[in-house]
Amino acid sequence: MRVGILGSGLMGGKLGTIFAHAGHEVVFSYARRKEKLETLARDAGRKARAGTPAEAAQSADVLLLAVHWSRVEDVLNQAGDLSGKVIVTCSLPMNADDTELVLGHTASGAEELAKRVPEARVVCAFNTVPSEVLFGVFEARRKATRPGLVYCGDDPGSKGIAAELIRDAGFDPVDAGPLRIARYTEPFALLVAQLAYEGTEGPELAYRFEWLGK
Ligand SMILES: NC(=O)c1ccc[n+]([C@@H]2O[C@H](COP(=O)([O-])OP(=O)(O)OC[C@H]3O[C@@H](n4cnc5c(N)ncnc54)[C@H](OP(=O)(O)O)[C@@H]3O)[C@@H](O)[C@H]2O)c1
Q: Quick one: how many helices (H) and strands (E) in the chain?
């Protein structure tokens, strides 16, 4: 597939590199310096190049949105017409200093994005995983047990595309249902990030997972 990366930081830089290594054509876009995009593209190999958000969007089968919430408007304006495009978003609706979600429980960043670009097909994925584990999961992709990664969306075709990317990145795609489920996955993603980054200072938790069947 042709994958446009909108936001080439920790998430976009790593996932774009992984998608290129998995055989997709990747355009890295949206960083503060053009040289960074060129370095990323060079390091990701023959399948990758650097471009503007409009170039990344132009020929893309799927776009990865990986910018801070405060930059979403800007990158979408630069990307131009996204009619019919599949947008996989990992962007969490965080406040300026990344301490809190600005939406939750009754709305989600993914749903706001779908309202902001109604002519696009939005899938929420990759937001529940810290960027630090991405390369390790990709390297271990041929092992029998793969970590699950939840995704949600309203359009079956775009969910199929997202599931393919998730699989190519080394995860087992877990369909969590319609896009409104992002209301629950986005706060969960924040919790996982707090656990990952704050260590013993993070939240105290008790998890109980149950297999409910189909
Ligand atoms: N990091 C994680 O582990 C993680 C996990 C789950 C979800 N998320 C979510 O994923 C999204 C992206 O996170 P991230 O950690 O990848 O963020 P990041 O490393 O800060 O990447 C954001 C990208 O946007 C670019 N950018 C920012 N301001 C810009 C501007 N004014 N002009 C042009 N480019 C600009 C940055 O450029 P530079 O490269 O020049 O800085 C960078 O390439 C966020 O919504 C975050 O909540 C992150």
A: 8, 8
Measure Cα distances from 38 to 43, 51, 62, 127, 177 in Å.
9, 8, 20, 25, 37
Question: CA nearest 19: which of 69, 84, 66?
Answer: 66
Of 146, 148, 155, 169, the C-alpha closest to 117 is 155
Q: In the chain, which ranges are E strands?
A: 2-6, 25-29, 48-50, 62-65, 86-89, 121-125, 148-153, 172-175
- Using a cut of 0.90, tell me whether the model's pTM lies above it: yes
Nearest CA to ligand 1 atom 20: 9
208 pLDDT higher than 80: no
Q: Find, among 148, 153, 151, the residue nearest to 133 by Cα.
A: 148
Phi first, then psi, for residue 34 (nearest 5°) are -60, -35
Do residues 70 and 54 lie in contact, with contact meaning Cβ atoms separated by under 8 Å?
A: no
pLDDT, tens only, 18-47 = 999 999 999 999 999 999 999 999 999 999
Cα(1) to ligand 1 centroid in Å equals 23
Candidate from 28, 30, 101, 151 with most ligand 1 atoms within 8 A of CB, to mutate? 30
